[in-house]
Amino acid sequence: MKAVEARELTKKYRTKTAVDGIDLDINDGELFALLGVNGAGKTTTIRMLSCLSTPTDGRASIYGNDIRNDSTGVKNIIGISPQDTAVADNLTIKENLQLIAGIYGFSKEKAAQRVQEMIDLFGMEEVRNDRAKTLSGGWKRKLSIAMALISEPKLLFLDEPTLGLDVLARRELWTAIEALKGKMTIILTTHYMEEAEALSDRIAIMLGGRIKAIGTLSEIEAISGESGLEASFVKIADMTKKGEL
Amino acid sequence: MDRTISFASRNFKELLRDPLSYIFCLGFPLVMLVIMTLVNSSIPPEAKMTIFRIDNLSGGIAVFGLSFVMLFTCLSVSKDRAGSFLVRLYASPMRSSDFIAGYILPVFLLSMMQLIITFIASVIIGLIVGIQLDILGCLLASLSLIPLSVTMISIGLLFGTLFSEKASPGLCSIVISLASFLGGVWFDVEGIDGVLSTICNILPFFHGTKAARAAIAMEFGDYWTHIGVTAAYALVFTIISILVFRKKMKADLS
Lengths: 245, 254
Hints:
- The complex is a heterodimer of chains A (about 240) and B (about 250).
- Chain A has helices at about 40-50, 70-75, 95-105, 110-120, 135-150, 165-180, 195-200, 215-225, 230-240; strands at about 5-15, 15-25, 30-35, 55-60, 65, 80, 155-160, 185-190, 200-205, 210-215.
- Chain A is α/β, with parallel strands linked by helices and about 240 residues long.
- In chain A, β4 and β5 form a beta hairpin.
- In chain A, α3 packs across α4 (about 110-120) and α5 runs parallel beside α6.
- With about 250 residues, chain B is mainly α.
- Chain B has one domain (about 1-254).
- Chain B has helices at about 1-15, 20-40, 55-80, 85-90, 95-130, 135-145, 145-160, 165-180, 195-200, 205-215, 225-250.
- In chain B, α7 runs parallel beside α11.
- At the A-B interface, β6 and α3 of A face α1 and α4 of B.
């Protein structure tokens, strides 16, 4: 079964079309990157797929659950780490994780086990009792991803996970994301070329609400005729501007 | 139920860890009780002004204190809406009823703590100044203010849902001023006439003060009328705030 299947997915805000009839097929266990500049429609796409926004047109399903008709089914199998660090500031790392485990209805024992697993996975032992508001940006992002993971989602959305982080924190987070590869399906949005290149199995390039190229890095290079993701992206953006794509 | 309790527990912890909760919700009513008791001791007996006497004062201060609970409800909701924390929760299996109950329960608990502390302090102050307050009456006064507490919490939920983190505290301060001025705390509403008296009798604050005073005095002449008015406000504002929250949540997800 496909993790994500979308057909003609569209989102319009009055006169502006944020996402313009995109088709997507994402395989189970794949790390899929949505790459594009700000305003390309990446976050809107994620919002629709995670039932945070209703599509204006088209359809999509997550592991067979329709995003329009079965939002509860979708919400039970996804985890999301939003663009801004979505944590409860006055709670500790442990309490933030316990909160999400409680919301997903875990028993006390299961919640305690999952909290410890998340703390171990992201190496948060030393800061487990620190309140979120006192954490650095890097720790907050790790906590945000851990909160998305604690419910054991089949599909994880990471919306610009390394935005605003310094180079060391970014590399650390890449290592953490790489460790998740294959264990679940991950959809990552980013506008950092090197991030998409380093982490993803397949990449979709979004421009002006449309997917202009999709495939592995070598497939995208073949479409653009350029070498490297950055050069390919620039070429594809240029071809789009000229109406060649 | 698990979802509601988890979310309510988070909100309660956030409240307890905010020093302003102690200052405004617990400290401020106590300070006002002490200050106004000192003012009362400075009023000569021939003035025959008893509004600041502890048996009259405690009910009014309890009503005034509840208006700060409204402010904290409003801040909890508007702060969450301003950040992306709610986005995460919207993408979880939480329903609107989980959100609403999760916001209301902790502040309701806070309001009960505030009322109990206010009346315990009133009993102690009463003993110091030589006025014995009926313990049962004080307990009943705390229960009598539950409808007004629910009204205040609902107004807080409504403002927090409709307005931004910056705008909503300003609007709350208007209600706080109204509760204070028109609640019969600072002047004898029954001693005045005209438009001001009518407004005081239309709004729920004065009825809350009167219900609490009647309970403390264990005199139940108009007690049920005052309870009826505050209960009606509680019902109406609870329904409005729930409907508005649900509508806003639906709009956020459209």
